[in-house]
Specification:
This protein is mainly alpha-helical. The protein is about 75% helix and about 0% strand. The relative contact order is 0.11.
């Protein structure tokens, strides 16, 4: 574990604790978890459904706090993270550690009570995977950190589905695989135009150790199986045409943007417009795709009743 350095802590408030949860990242996590729950067959008690989604949020926030506790030394070296509560000295590392453990434990216990043992177990494993496997083991050691570590962010739709049904199925597994394959091109697009930050912190992200050209090739390569998995639920009859049309259109545009990244030869962040466009669209892509799968499944479930 990195050495703990003494700092003079500035006054903190609730906003600093909230920042430890990485709220912008949590928004996508919660949304995909909610969509996984809505896409599941059968109805879940609304109160228990809300509690289950809350648990996903608490678990994600707890894992993020543990991530920032462990990486405070790295965050202090990067411009885009230097103002986070720990490197800025507004919170102590002990506070972040206790906050992260508390949120994580509470989320798993509440999920076990509100949903079922399997959903709680998967939630617990996802927290462990992000906080330990990715943060402690992978991130500082290998340029494949985001490839393997991407699984941590892929669990929410699986958790949402299992919370509602108590069992696994092919559709949530495909949704898990979709996020798993989406994470590398999404994150590598970002890392290309903040490469100097990662280099300054000594983090072996792919653009730092392999260069921009190799990273752009990997982005384009990963976008192809990602697009195939995105369309697979429709082709396998797990969703209807509503999702299928949205998935084909969005995935085709994602691949088109990734080819634009591949064709770019810029080395300076200011000239990396294709990378910035892909990164921005990749977030919208996942929101729209998961919204489509939830709407499609709900329409297929309730439309016959409403029409008949």
């Amino acid at each position: 574990m990195p050495a703990i350095t003494a700092t003079q802590h500035l006054p903190a408030d609730w906003r600093d604790l909230f920042a430890l949860t990485k709220p912008r990242v949590m928004t996508l996590v919660v949304f995909t978890g909610l969509c996984g729950l809505l896409a599941a067959h059968g109805a879940m008690n609304p109160v228990l459904a809300f509690a289950s989604v809350l648990c996903i949020a608490l678990g994600a926030g707890g894992a993020a706090a543990l991530n920032q506790w462990y990486e405070a030394d790295l965050d202090a070296k990067m411009k885009r993270t230097a103002d986070r509560p720990l490197p800025a000295g507004r919170l102590s590392r002990d506070t972040a550690l206790h906050f992260g453990i508390g949120l994580s434990a509470a989320s798993v216990m509440l999920m076990d009570l509100a949903a079922n043992h399997l959903a709680a177990a998967i939630l617990a494993f996802s927290i462990f995977f992000y906080a330990v496997v990715y943060t402690v083991w992978l991130k500082r050691r290998t340029p494949q950190n985001i490839v393997i570590g991407g699984a941590a962010g892929a669990f929410p739709p699986l958790i949402g589905w299992v919370a509602a049904t108590g069992e696994l199925a092919l559709l949530p597994v495909l949704l898990f695989l979709l996020i798993f394959l989406w994470t590398p091109p999404h994150f590598w697009a970002l890392s290309l135009f903040v490469r100097s930050d990662y280099a300054a912190a000594g983090i072996p992200m792919l653009p730092v150790v392999a260069g921009a050209e190799a990273t752009r090739r990997q982005i384009a390569l990963y976008s192809l199986p990602m697009a195939a998995v995105a369309v697979a639920p429709w082709l396998l009859g797990l969703t209807g045409a509503l999702y299928g049309i949205v998935a084909v259109a969005l995935s085709a545009f994602f691949v088109f943007l990734s080819l634009g990244v591949l064709a770019n030869r810029a080395t300076e962040p200011a000239a990396m417009g294709p990378e910035k466009r892909l990164f921005a669209f990749s977030v919208l892509y996942l929101f729209l795709l998961f919204g489509a799968v939830a709407c499609d499944r709900l329409a297929n479930r309730y439309a016959p009743t409403l029409l008949g």
